[in-house]
Amino acid sequence: MSAALKVLTVAPRAKHTATIIFIHGLGDSGHGWKPVADMFSKDFPHVKWILPNAPTISVTANGGMSMPGWFDVFEFGAINAREDEEGMLKTMHSLNQLITAEADAGIPADRIVLGGFSQGAAMSLLTGLTTERRLAGVTVLSGWLPLHLKIKAMLNNHAKKLPIFWGHGKSDPIVRFDRATMSIRYIKEQLELNTLVSPDKVLEGGIEFHAYDFLPHSVNDKELEELKTFLKKVVPEQE
């Protein structure tokens, strides 16, 4: 049994009716995304933000250096690099524990958003498509779809109805833009999810994809504004 994740929490400013769990990238921590949670909390006073911290692991591609990570990386940048399936499945279990804890505390799964950046985005997508619960939505910032050879068998029966926001910079040197587009093509052809959803149709399920010119492995103001618009649709404030 894996130990529960240590988390940073940003409390709601009003009655708690929704939760956003946001997963950081390799080498980062929950504190790295707290400024975004704080900024968004003005527009989402009903939302509790959970920012988990990855355990410290040895990262092969960094010469075995220890750093916070959700799974090992064997080779940076390669499209078909070997994947740390064991590490990914362990992280999925930990994220599902966070979702279960929120549901047990009275927040319905369809009022919980799972999202992340880079490694965190990959894990959010993998978990959101396979978890037994139907989440409110998933947000993928500078991410990709891992475990191509396994995920079809792992897919939950409500994946096609899952609203997904996906943003990626065209100048990303770490998780290259073509890695995102290849993932989306695979999702369309092999998983048969709708991958060309317009923002006004995303609540019906599928991927709302946004590409950002000149954006490296990061986010910008435009992406954050479009993410905010998506979140207002999937976890609107309730009376």
Write up what this structure looks like:
There is one protein chain. This protein has helices at 34-40, 85-104, 119-130, 148-154, 177-189, 221-234; strands at 6-10, 18-23, 47-53, 56-59, 65-68, 112-117, 137-141, 163-169, 206-212. The chain is globular, with a radius of gyration of 16 Å. With 239 residues, the chain is α/β, with parallel strands linked by helices. Helix content is 31%, strand content 21%. The chain is built from 6 helices and 9 strands; from the N terminus they run ββαβββαβαβαβαβα. The mean pLDDT is 96. α4 links the parallel β7 (137-141) and β8 (163-169). Strands 1-3-2-6-7-8-9 form a 7-stranded mixed β-sheet, with helices on both faces. A two-stranded antiparallel sheet has the order 4-5. The longest helix has 20 residues, at 85-104. α2 packs across α3 (119-130). The termini are far apart.
Question: What are the main properties of this structure?
Answer:
239 residues, alpha/beta, 7-stranded mixed sheet, two-stranded antiparallel ribbon, 9 strands, 21% strand, globular
List the secondary-structure elements in sequence, H or E: EEHEEEHEHEHEHEH
Number of strands: 9
Strand order of the largest sheet: 1-3-2-6-7-8-9
- C-alpha termini separation: 39 Å
- Mean pLDDT equals 96
Radius of gyration: 16 Å
Helical/strand content category? alpha/beta
Compose a concise summary of this entry.
By secondary structure, the chain is an alpha/beta fold. The protein is built from six helices and nine strands. β2 (18-23), α1 and β3 (47-53) form a beta-alpha-beta unit.
